[in-house]
Amino acid sequence: MSAEGTTAKAAAGAAARRRSPGAAWQKPDLAAAFLDEYRKLIPALDIQERLISTLLTREGRAIDRFLDLGAGAGAFTRLVMEAHPDSTGVLLDFSEPMIVAAEQRLAGTRSRWEYVRGDLSAPAWRDALPAGERYDAIVSGFCIHHLPDERKRSLYEEVLELLQPGGIFLNWEHVAAEGMAEGMFEEFMIERLVEAEQQRESARPAEEVARAYREREAADDDILTDSLTQCGWLREAGFERVELFFQLPELALFGGARPGGNGRGGG
Question: CA 17, 31, 213, 226 torsion: positive or negative?
Answer without folding.
Answer: positive
